[in-house]
Amino acid sequence: MPDYVGAVDQGTTSTRFMVFDHSGNEVAKHQLEHEQILPKAGWVEHNPVEIWERTASVIQTALNNAGIGASDLVALGVTNQRETTVVWNRKTGRPYHNAIVWQDTRTDRIASALDRDGRGDVIRRKAGLPPATYFSGGKIQWILENVDGVRAAADSGDAIFGNTDSWVIWNLTGGTDGGVHVTDVTNASRTMLMNLETLDWDDELLGFFGIPRSMLPKIMPSSAPGGYGELTGLPAVRGVPLTGDLGDQQAATVGQVCFELGEAKNTYGTGNFMLLNTGENLVRSSSGLLTTVCYQFGEHKPVYALEGSIAVTGSAVQWLRDQLGIISGAAETETLARQVSDNGGIYFVPAFSGLFAPYWRSDARGAIVGLSRFNTNAHLARATLEAICYQSRDVAEAMEQDSGVHLEVLKVDGGVTANDLCMQMQADILGVPVSRPVVAETTALGAAYAAGLATGFWSTTGELRANWNESKRWTPQWSDQQRAEGYAGWKKAVQRTLGWVEVQ
User: Fold this and answer.
1) Where are the alpha helices (DSSP H) in 44-95?
2) Which residues, 6 or more positions from 34, have their beta carbon under 8 angstroms from its beta carbon?
3) SS3 state at 292
4) Could you tell me what percentage of the chain is helix, strand and coil, using 3-state DSSP and rounding each to the nearest 5?
5) Phi and psi for 24 in degrees, rounded to 5?
6) Theoretical Cys-Cys bridge with 28: which of 12, 66, 87, 492, CB 3.0 to 4.6 Å?
7) What whole-number distance in Å separates Cα of residue 287 and Cα of residue 143?
8) CA-to-CA distance for 479 and 487, rounded, in angstroms?
9) Is the separation of the CB atoms in 104 and 42 below 8 Å?
10) What is the DSSP letter of 116?
11) Three-state SS at 76
């Protein structure tokens, strides 16, 4: 059997390709950023063609740099930014419009209309999601209604939809020459179009958005022993079985080996995403969380999760760099924040795309509150890191209310976990230890695990659990009073952001 498993990780700001060995160690990696297109306030787009070109490039470069060929790979997995919506022509392979990114808020009127007339309650019950700009269904509707020719092309069967996993897989398997149009249950569960109980597209939900079923990909398990299709679209991996597909946060949950009921992880990326494994039971949230599919391996029953999705965390640090110019790189945030011992009384609520879990307020916008002449850029840097941690506490509290499970330790992964100060703040603000694994790239690792399980490269999830090792642990240092006062200030700051935008 070949020695390695490969994983495409198509993320919000970049695409990477990684190769792992049987012990879950990184063997090869290459990563490229892609452009963030911001045509109007609240609009966020990506160029799907650029994303596919970056995908092909990172695969080729990573394999070349490591001296690895297709014959060395037992399987390939894909993981992706969820909800980001691509509609393209199956005959020409050309997208009709830029991808509409999960952070985009142009569909706020569509989302609010669903809630006004009761359809929102049906979506919550069937899809486990609140009507929100976050999810794919409204984005597809917007493209159908606003881009010339797409409605007719959809009705004729030429226009097809996918999140970026479907787009990448379609191109990897030949594109216009026999490309396979598929997705997995985790990605499908982020559209507002899939019934969580049947794991199939729901005609009533499709009707809410006016979406023809023929546009939609076939829903498959996250780990598919028979594979999704033959890799023919890229010579570097031709003939390698494509057997894993997971939305990025579910992939990170698998990479963090959260296979037992009650295990949770928090990924710190562009946004933050905390998932709690609820087993084979659908747990309906009454606290503003999402009910989602965690993973489905082969013919096994799906495993579900409660998820708290936070729109802006790492991208707030990016904002300090790109829009304000007070840092030149993400690592500088820690250095700058360490110049002061506290936030100087200021709170930064980065509600650039409204507030996601547990608030779901598309009328919110970002705010920095409590400013005085005393405050410096160091206080703002510290408040930015605290905002990441306070938003995570909001979600953790909601999870405890819904599930009755109190976190004993929080497993963390993603780029921000390299920031020691931020992780110490997270332990202080939550009041529980924070644990980072040796392999921090758990998203790509989870996609590799799903692919490898399908081929027998790994035989059981127990084998995967044995691969997990802790790299570092942070323990709380704040007093209970500090924790309570800090969180009270945060909650007051959140209230100042609400009702800023009129949503009709």
Assistant:
1) 48-66
2) 13, 14, 15, 46, 47, 50, 51, 54
3) strand
4) 40, 25, 40
5) 80, 15
6) 66
7) 31
8) 12
9) yes
10) H
11) strand
Residue with tokens 């003939």: 239
Asked if residue 99 lies in contact with residue 162, where contact means CB atoms within 8 angstroms, the answer is no
Identify the CA nearest to 293 among candidates 380, 217, 204, 184: 184
Write the single-letter amino acid at 410: L
Q: Find out whether 301 and 284 touch, Cβ atoms under 8 Å.
A: no
Token pair for residue 111? 């989302």
Instruction: Report whether 477 contacts 428 (CB < 8 A).
Output: yes
For the chain (504 residues), the mean pLDDT of every run of 10, in chain order, is 92 95 94 94 95 97 94 96 96 97 92 89 93 94 96 96 97 94 97 96 97 97 92 90 96 93 88 91 88 94 92 89 88 92 95 89 92 94 95 93 86 91 96 91 94 94 91 96 96 95 73
413 and 442 Cβ atoms separated by less than 8 Å: yes
**Is-above-0.85 flag for pTM?**
yes
Looking at residue 55, its amino acid is: T
Strands (E), 269-362: 272-279, 290-295, 303-310, 347-349
Cα–Cα distance measured from residue 209 to residue 434, given in angstroms and rounded to the nearest whole number: 41
The whole-angstrom separation of Cα 318 and Cα 346 is: 19
End-to-end Cα separation, the chain, in angstroms: 58
- Side chain identity, residue 181: H
Which residue type is seen at 100?
A: I
DSSP H helices in 279-376: 314-319, 332-337
Residue reference for tokens 């899939």: 194
Rounded to the nearest 10 degrees, what angle do helices 108-116 and 119-127 cross at? 100
Query: Number of C-alpha atoms within 13 angstroms, CB side, residue 421?
Result: 20
Give pLDDT, residue 440. 79
Residue 118: which region, alpha, beta or left (left: phi > 0; alpha: psi -120 to 50)? left
